[in-house]
Structure to design on (462 residues):
């Protein structure tokens, strides 16, 4: 088989590298990818919308389709390049078996890497698959991880339960306080894992400060960017080593798949890929197609999410039936550094209804447009209450201790007309004036016993 000067087999895929030990050497230099000769590249820097539409698209030479085909296959014909890849242990770059890699995956991964300003990206079957494989691949038994005490519940449980069982120690701190993070660093600390915005109170850790701290101590900084997306914030530009997402949310944007993403230097992403290959968290080809379709409208959708959430926050901030409102667009938002680095704030706004959880439930039931459901980031608005969903395992006292006060609602603004969403909220809140209900406790009878059993404050689970 003839080759071009760059080592790429003509009409085929890049040949495997000959350095079988590359995967264990985090100091090595790697190029972007994996990618095929048929994927569209953007030679000059392009804006978010251009990158979202064109970046990484597989230009099929046979059908000349304008979009990436769905490579709905589990396995591929073997050839000399395949055998080389097996021999050298570098099967990520060659189509052999879909658990190793598939052009449907490579196309959407290239687009994601370009959007995040990363060298490489990997898609997985869920956000938790991306998080768990990243943490396991890049830490060792005997190592130490620092994360936030109010991190997403699935991540919290992974850190507290699974990592402990696998020989890693974890410290939970206030990630918005660099001094608290610095105080938790040990000689064996290997990773700092934080979220760009937290759920549901939208706290924003100072990523640039944390990145400087991580580099000073030779620690990997991993940022969960789910609540903002690369259309609003690129943590790698602020010094983060890797970014993870639940692509189920904004990246896909249509509430019709579960997926995860990790993006960063290829030397790290390759390690995560190897871990994912062993654990089996592969994203199948049709979901890759759906995710790539969703990404093409990401910047457009994020502008609508941002505008709607900001408008809702402004309306609620002046409403007599509402207490605190949590959204970065408001002048009293306590993390102003986010405004210096973010191009938008996403679609989530949280607020407290006067009268507590009972009154908030009445508002929830009166809303017509948002769907009552967990998750966020879809084109449709969603609304939920932490006390009976994400934070239901906490007592009321524990919820209050982490800032989840009675009456708190989380509203994920979709892309509907802002005026319609505000009118709907206004009408639902007006019902409280007609028949105000006394605040009711939402603790269960065994809360006191539960308080005594829990040594640490558990976090959200949905």
């Amino acid at each position: 088989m003839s080759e071009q000067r760059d080592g790429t087999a003509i009409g085929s895929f890049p040949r495997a590298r000959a350095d079988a030990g590359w995967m264990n050497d985090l100091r090595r230099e790697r190029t972007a990818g994996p990618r095929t000769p048929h994927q569209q590249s953007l030679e000059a820097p392009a804006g978010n919308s251009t990158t979202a539409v064109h970046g990484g698209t597989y230009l099929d030479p046979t059908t000349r389709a304008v979009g990436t085909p769905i490579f709905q296959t589990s396995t591929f014909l073997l050839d000399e390049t395949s055998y080389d890849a097996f021999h050298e242990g570098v099967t990520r770059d060659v189509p052999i078996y879909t658990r190793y890699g598939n052009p449907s995956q490579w196309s959407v991964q290239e687009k994601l890497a370009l959007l995040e300003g990363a060298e490489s990206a990997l898609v997985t079957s869920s956000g938790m698959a991306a998080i768990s494989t990243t943490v396991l691949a890049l830490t060792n038994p005997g190592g130490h991880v620092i994360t936030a005490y109010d991190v997403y519940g699935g991540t919290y449980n992974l850190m507290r339960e699974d990592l402990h069982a696998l020989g890693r120690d974890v410290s939970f701190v206030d990630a918005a306080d660099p001094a608290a993070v610095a105080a938790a660093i040990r000689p064996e600390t290997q990773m700092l894992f934080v979220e760009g915005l937290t759920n549901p109170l939208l706290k924003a850790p100072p990523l640039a400060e944390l990145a400087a701290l991580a580099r000073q101590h030779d620690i990997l900084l991993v940022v969960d960017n789910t609540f903002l997306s690369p259309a609003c914030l690129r943590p790698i530009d602020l010094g983060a080593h890797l970014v993870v997402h639940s692509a189920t949310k904004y990246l896909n944007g249509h509430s019709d798949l579960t997926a995860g993403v990790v993006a960063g230097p290829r030397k790290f992403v390759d390690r995560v890929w190897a871990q994912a290959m062993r654990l089996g968290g592969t994203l199948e080809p049709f979901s890759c197609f759906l995710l790539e379709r969703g990404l093409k409208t990401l910047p457009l959708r994020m502008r609508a999410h941002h505008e709607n959430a900001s408008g809702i926050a402004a309306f609620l901030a002046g409403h007599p039936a509402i207490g605190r409102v949590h959204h970065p667009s408001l002048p009293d938002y306590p993390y102003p550094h986010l405004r210096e680095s973010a191009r938008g704030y996403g679609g989530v706004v949280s607020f407290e209804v006067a009268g507590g959880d009972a009154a908030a439930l009445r508002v929830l039931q009166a809303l017509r447009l948002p769907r009552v459901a967990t998750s966020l980031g879809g084109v449709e608005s969603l609304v939920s209450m932490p006390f009976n969903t994400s934070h239901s395992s906490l007592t009321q006292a524990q919820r209050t201790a982490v800032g989840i006060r009675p009456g708190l609602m989380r509203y994920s603004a979709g892309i509907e007309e802002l005026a319609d969403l505000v009118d709907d909220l206004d009408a639902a809140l007006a019902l409280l004036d007609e028949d105000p209900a006394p605040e009711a406790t939402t603790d269960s009878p065994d809360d006191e016993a539960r308080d005594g059993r829990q040594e640490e404050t558990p976090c959200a689970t949905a």
